[in-house]
Structures are given as structure tokens and as C-alpha cells.
């Protein structure tokens, strides 16, 4: 976001790092009363943990592989112990070991969550840039909802097109493309036997683009499919699961949608008269009257956007392995 627009009015802007910094800041403040400088160190180490974890054998589904002291497993254990437990030291007065582990797991998820919000913001912007007609629609809607005023939480409800765009980008590029579940006991699905402690993985990305479910344009960006909400979007709306499903459903879903809508609404320019963007371009606005953090603080003050978590069914075993 630092680059200046050139004399022709067009510049290439690297936004990913900015979004990452912003979402860590927001999530840190909302969840821990911390700021980015406080959370940055933990976040950087967790980033290391994520890249180490992704080089591990998640697709093999054999839990035993997690306990073999390979180079990447050892690196992962080191990062978990030193980075996350250190990060969570403010919570150490909780006492019980399982509760501590439970908190640490949630702590990890929340930091991973910042990354998901940043990824979704980047993809939504990319789609708006490559679909100028949707960019126009979103801009017109945001301008109308705001009516030249400071962005208020109540205005977000009027930004239906923007919500449709976000839903569609979460459909095409879900930040958590695979969801994992570990069998806590032997299970049978028809003639499939899943032994105890085996992991099963659901490919959310594949479900989200199945033409049998979403129709012939399943691979295309078409936010219109969400004009009647998620329930009217396809033949089997329960397969739309960017935020997961069941008792482990994302705790920050509403919060994430609010951050995404605020960020994108504030990025949309204030000027009606700007010409239509060329394919691949997006018009950015800047408005010093509007501060995304302030608006979020107001929203958080008004309503609890992060509901309290369901305790794990068996303390210490029901760790989330994907998402956030
Ligand atoms: C676009 C942004 C986000 C996406 C796509 C996302 C997605 C997910 C997914 C797929 C899961 C796993 C659900 C399952 O296994 O069924 C999850 C879990 C979770 N998410 Fe998010 N998330 C996002 C943002 C957030 C934010 C901002 C927070 C908190 C501020 C958050 C907090 C959590 C927590 C605590 C869990 C664990 C829930 C549990 O195990 O009970 N997420 N998220």
C-alpha cells in the first residue's frame, strides 16, 4: 500500500503484507488486547510452524507419522513448544494441563485465522480487479450505503453485493481447502471402516467447485449465485463450508465477515466519477475519515462476534488440524 500512483494513474501495489499486518493487529487486539508489535513475534514463529507443518505428511492420514522424529517434525515440535507456549504465557495461571493445551490450540487457530482473513481479502480484491462490472456494482453499493458519511456498523448490512462477492471468493479459494477429522473410535460408513485415531480429510476446494452441485459455471466467478444467500446458492448448500461445519465450526466466522466487509468497503473509492477500471485493475480509495480499526472496535463493543468455544469432547485429543 505504500507505493504512489504514477502520473498515468496506475501503479502496481503489493497488498498481501499490508493485509497480513492489519489482520494480525485486529485479531490480536480483539482476542488478546494485544497489538501487532506484541503479537508479531508469535505470529512470525507460527508462520514458520505452518510452513513446516505443510511440508509434513498430512495426506497420508497415519497418525503415527506425527510422532517420528523426522527433521520437519522436530522443527514443528520446537516451534510449538517455544513459540506458542511462550506466547501463551500470560494465560499460564490457568493451571490445569489440559486447559492450557486447549488454550494453546485456540491461540494457534486464532493466529492462523488472521492469515485466512488476509488471504480472503487478497482474493476478493483480485476478483474485483478482474471483473470490473462487479467492481462497479460493489463501489456503487458502498457509496450508496455510506452516503458520504463515516462507515457505521449498521451500513454493513446494506452491502449485500459485497457479501456475495466475499462468499464467492471463499467458495473458489477457501483459505482452509482441506478439513481434517480424527476418529476417536472405530467407525463404519457403509462398507468403509475407519480405524480409531485415523485422520480423514475433506477436500473443501473440490466440493466447492463440483459442477454436479454448483452447475456448469462451477469454476467461474459468479457472485450472483449467492443472491438468495447460501441456502439458495446450489443444490446442496451444506457442502459450502469455508468456515467448516458441525461443532468445530469457525468461532470467528461473523468477526471475519465483518473485517472483510469493512476492509473492502474502505478500499472502494469514494468518487463516483472515476472511470471504469480496466480488466485486472482496481480503483483504490483513501479516506482519512474512516479508520477500519475504529469501526471494528465499535462493532466489537456492540456485539460479541466471537462466540465462546465449545470445550473439546476429550481434553487434549480433539485438536483442530486444519482451518482458521
Ligand atoms: C476468512 C476467515 C476465516 C476462515 C475462512 C476460517 C475458517 C475456519 C475453518 C475452516 C475452521 C475449522 C472448522 C472445522 O474444522 O469444521 C476454523 C476454526 C476456527 N476458527 Fe476460523 N476462519 C476464519 C477466521 C477466523 C477468525 C477471524 C477467528 C477469530 C478471531 C477464527 C477463529 C477460529 C477458531 C477459534 C476455530 C476453532 C473452532 C473449534 O475448534 O471449536 N477464525 N476456521
The gist of it:
With 324 residues, the chain is mostly helical. It is 47% helix and 5% strand. Strand 2 and strand 3 form a beta hairpin.
Number of strands: 4
Radius of gyration: 21 Å
CATH topology of the domain at 16-174 and 253-302: Cytochrome p450
CATH top level label of the domain at 16-174 and 253-302? Mainly Alpha
Please report which band the strand proportion falls in: under 5%, 5-15%, 15-25%, 25-35%, 35-45% or over 45%. Answer: under 5%
Number of helices: 11
- Report helical residue fraction: 40-55%
CA-CA gap between termini: 25 Å
Q: What would the average pLDDT be, to the nearest integer?
A: 75
Q: How would you write the strand order of the largest sheet?
A: 1-4
Query: What is the CATH architecture term of the domain at 16-174 and 253-302?
Result: Orthogonal Bundle
| Residue windows where pLDDT falls under 50 for at least 5 positions | 304-324
List the bound ligands.
protoporphyrin IX containing FE
Largest sheet: 2 strands, antiparallel
Following the backbone from N to C, one meets helices and strands in this order, namely HHHHHHHEEEEHHHH
What would you call the structural class?
mainly alpha
Shape category: globular
| CATH superfamily label of the domain at 16-174 and 253-302 | Cytochrome P450
Main location: membrane
GO cellular component, one term: membrane
Subcellular location: Membrane
Membrane topology: Single-pass membrane protein
